[in-house]
Structures are given as C-alpha cells and as structure tokens.
Design brief:
single chain
Length: 202
Amino acid sequence: MRQIEIRQLEPGQSEPGQLEIRRKPRRKDPPAVRLLLMLMLMLMALAALMLTGCSEKEEDVLVDMNMPYEPDTPAPAPHEGVFKSEHGTMTFSGDGESVILNFDKKLSECLGLPEGEQEAKYVFMSGYLAPHGHVPVRYDVAFMIRLVVGEGDSRSIADVDIGLYENGSFYTGTNCTTPERITFFVEWEEDGDTEAVDFLKQ
C-alpha cells in the first residue's frame, strides 16, 4: 500500500509522492454589502409588523361592526315588581338579574322549566350575531329573554323570544319590551301555533 504524506508546504512547492493542501481563503464581503443586507432584513421585519398590526385593526373593526344596536340614551331601569299573564307571574327584584317565576303547567312544559314557584336568573339577549351568537343587551332592544332555573346538573334554561304583538303581527327589537310589559312569543307544542303571552306590570 502506498503511503501518502500530507504536510503544509509553501505556495508553489511540491515533492513527488506528496500532496499539497491549500486552505481556500474565506471570502469577506465589503462593509457596504453587509450594511445593505442588514438594512434589508430590518425593512422586511418592519413590514411584517405593520401588516400584522393592520390585520388586527381590521379584525377589530369587523367585530365592532357586528355588535348589537344600542341607543345613545340612558339604559332603562331594571324591571321591578309583579308581572302577570294568563299563564302565571314573574316577580322581579329590581337588581336586573333575579326573578321569581310562577308559571302554570302548560307554559312550564312548553318552555322546559319546572312548574310552580321557582327562583331564577334572567338576562335579555340580542338576536343572533355571528360569530358571537346571542349577547346580553338592555331590554328595550332585546329579541329574547333567557331564564335560568337551578344550578349544576339540575339547571334548566329557556330562551324565549319576546317582542310586541299588534294588529295581527309579531314585532321584535327596539322598544318592543317596555317597563310595564314583557311579551313572550310561545309556540305551543300541541298545534304549533305561536301565541303572544303578555306579562303586564301589576
């Protein structure tokens, strides 16, 4: 076997049976080129940040555009006292969230709530707004009322459309619910008909 000796020689020197190994000098970019590359990287990073910021602002605008309508007037005071209908009563405490329900069997079964006197929580809700769904609103612009009876596994929730029935037509939304009247739109299971059930303040 032929042995090859490798050793460093002066440039241009070589001997038989020996291999000259030269190191290729590392290429150095001029300072101006390095500065230009750094500036380009900084500009690209800045552009990316600006595009991200614009996207977030545009998303915020889209979200705000799909929020429920709210008048530029003071919100009405919460309901308080007894509201009575032909199918039972609702007694509001005035705190804007607590109510005592006392519905008859027909209305209770239709709404999926326990019959008789029940302590409950309530909140007025908007119509459906993608991507939020229904969101809490003041009652003078509400499309529905959410009634919650019980807690945990025994909790029952009823989302009830509300509004105004007038001259044979159903209306919902702005100024359809008042301090003196809350009207349920109830679809009875036996015939599928929708009835306006007025709860009037006593």
